[in-house]
UniProtKB/TrEMBL annotation:
Major enzyme class: transferase
Listed name of the protein: histidine kinase
Upper classification of the organism: Bacteria, Bacillati, Actinomycetota, Actinomycetes, Streptosporangiales
Gene3D superfamilies noted in UniProt: 1.20.5.1930, Histidine kinase-like ATPase, C-terminal domain (3.30.565.10)
GO CC, one annotated term: membrane
Pfam family, one: HisKA_3
Membrane-crossing segments per the record: 33-52, 59-77, 97-116
Organism expressing this protein natively: Nonomuraea rubra
EC number, UniProt record: 2.7.13.3
Molecular functions per Gene Ontology: ATP binding; phosphorelay sensor kinase activity; protein dimerization activity
Histidine kinase/HSP90-like ATPase domain mapped to chain residues: 270-361
InterPro entries: HATPase_C_sf (IPR036890), HATPase_dom (IPR003594), Sensor_HK_TwoCompSys (IPR050482), Sig_transdc_His_kin_sub3_dim/P (IPR011712)
């Protein structure tokens, strides 16, 4: 694919340069049709032919066209191939680095000044006026080249940013899926271990719940990998559950309750996914940092807004100040939805995670 594109570009470039050579030939050769001698014709044909090499060897072409320019200027009919010279100088600025192109422009100005000064009795100001213009096409080529390079750097930066964003999104998904289900499995394995001697049936139910949770984790991981292998919908619209899955999520988390207020409405895809992952992460953190604490999940549907709050009555978190990976992922998710997140110790004890999410898709 890339090879065919490159071949197509080279063919178009070659055709364009051939057309440019014809234009130079017609423009420069016209005045000499009625003149005797072949000198001007030969220099013009040579200068036009060099246009075919201006992209691959711009400096060499500029030097050769400059030599033809000087030779033509010394002929009985002193009319040099000006258009070929200007195109060659533009090609130097367009296809070479700053240092060599600046050197060529300086040489063109100096040689032009000497040629005009020696050939005609111009004063200094007239000589400078005739010799400085060769620097302009080099500068124009510089501008075009720099603009193209800037556009390429912007495209590369955008691609790198997209890759980094995708990695962060994948990290959030993996963290949410693995951390939640592993913590639930750990919870029920602990229940089974403690109740096997006294209550075998309860221990059996705990083991079954742990097994189901592990199976669900594997299902979500496989689903996530399937999403990554295809170019279909984004992760947010496929992986994991949304608000309808909150009752089951809260129930499997142990000592937790769900309270819903307001008239439920259909949530935007990103908000729906964010609500589920936020509650999942908050409950996971409660089991991890405040085992045995009771959690309350509140969902409030307001006009144009959804409020989500997860509180627990556990002891204060150790090392409180910074955000861990899970809370950082929460903050990123909420921010991408245009919402606000607050997480920290509650005044009456325990920990609270509170988010406000607008119910309009981000444009």
């Amino acid at each position: 694919m890339k090879l065919s594109i490159l071949r197509g570009w080279m063919t178009r470039a070659w055709a364009g340069d051939a057309g440019l050579a014809v234009v130079v030939l017609v423009a420069e050769l016209g005045p000499f049709i009625q003149w005797p001698g072949t000198g001007p014709v030969l220099t013009t044909v040579a200068a036009a032919g060099l246009m075919l090499l201006r992209r691959r060897h711009p400096v060499v072409v500029a030097v050769l066209v400059g030599a033809l320019y000087v030779i033509a200027y010394q002929m009985p009919v002193p009319d040099a191939p000006v258009s070929a010279m200007l195109i060659a100088l533009y090609s130097v600025g367009r296809h070479t680095a700053v240092l060599p192109s600046t050197a060529v422009a300086t040489a063109a100005v100096v040689v032009g000044a000497l040629v005009h000064r020696l050939s005609w009795e111009y004063d200094v100001s007239m000589t400078l006026g005739l010799s400085l213009p060769p620097a302009l096409p080099v500068a124009a080529g510089h501008v075009v080249r720099l603009r193209k390079e800037l556009g390429q750097r912007r495209e590369q930066q955008a691609a790198e940013n997209a890759v980094r964003a995708e990695r962060r999104r994948l990290a959030r998904e993996l963290h949410d899926v693995i951390a939640h289900h592993v913590s639930v499995v750990n919870l029920y394995m602990g229940v089974a271990r403690r109740t096997i001697p006294a209550d075998p049936e309860r221990a059996r139910q705990a083991l079954l719940t742990g097994e189901d949770t592990a199976r669900q984790a594997m299902t979500e991981l496989r689903h996530l990998l399937d999403v990554l292998r295809t170019d279909g919908e984004p992760i947010e619209s496929q992986a994991g559950a949304g608000a309808p899955g909150l009752p089951a999520l809260v129930e499997e988390s142990g000592d937790a309750v769900l309270e819903i207020s307001g008239a439920a409405v259909e949530l935007p895809t990103a908000v729906d996914h964010t609500v589920y992952r936020l509650v999942q992460e908050a409950l996971t953190n409660t089991r991890k940092h405040a085992a045995g604490a009771r959690s309350t999940v509140r969902l409030a549907y307001l006009p144009g807004l959804l409020e989500v709050e997860v509180t627990d009555d556990g002891r204060p978190r150790p090392g409180g100040g910074g955000l861990g990976l899970g809370l950082a992922g929460m903050a990123e998710r909420v921010s991408l939805c245009g919402g606000e997140l607050r997480a920290g110790p509650a005044p009456e004890g325990g920990f609270v995670v509170h988010a406000r999410l607008p119910l309009t898709e981000k444009m």
